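Example for tutorial group B:
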């Protein structure tokens, strides 16, 4: 092997190593069925505003415009609903316990959430809390989630 080929081979190995590190190995994700089971509410929505940044824990909450409830709509009552009933506050972004947990304003995702437990009140009262990784909205992802919920 020439030195140029060896150099290219070395770069290829390094690139593969970087991609493998970013993959599932660094943050093990539960099966979709388990994630759906552990979330009392599953919804699709768009992040409208990022707020309540916690500089100590590097977590934040987002105001999310809800497009559709895939599960648990009846659990989301008047106190949780904002701005006329089509928005909710979701907390727990940046939580190291959740693999894919970062969003930007305008992102549309499938959210797996639960009502904030009482020990998180009053700071997170009437908030939904991220329960597992966000999912991008694709036809396949929607079909898979609907299959689990159904």
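The residue assignment follows.
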């Amino acid at each position: 092997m020439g030195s140029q080929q060896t150099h290219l081979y070395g770069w290829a190995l390094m690139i593969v190593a970087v991609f493998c590190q970013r993959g599932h190995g660094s943050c093990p994700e539960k099966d979709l069925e388990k994630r759906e089971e552990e979330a009392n509410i599953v919804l699709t929505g768009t992040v409208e505003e990022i707020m309540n940044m916690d500089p100590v824990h590097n977590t934040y909450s987002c105001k999310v415009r809800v497009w559709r409830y895939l599960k648990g709509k009846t659990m989301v009552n008047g106190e949780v609903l904002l701005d006329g009933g089509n928005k909710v506050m979701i907390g727990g972004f940046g939580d190291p316990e959740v693999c894919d947990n970062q969003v930007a304003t305008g992102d549309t995702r499938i959210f797996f959430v639960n009502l904030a437990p009482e020990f998180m009140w009053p700071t997170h009262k009437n908030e939904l809390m991220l329960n597992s990784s966000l999912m991008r909205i694709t036809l396949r992802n929607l079909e898979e989630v609907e299959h689990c919920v159904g």
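Residues 3-25 form the longest helix (23 residues). Compare this with the pattern of hydrophobic and polar residues in the output above.
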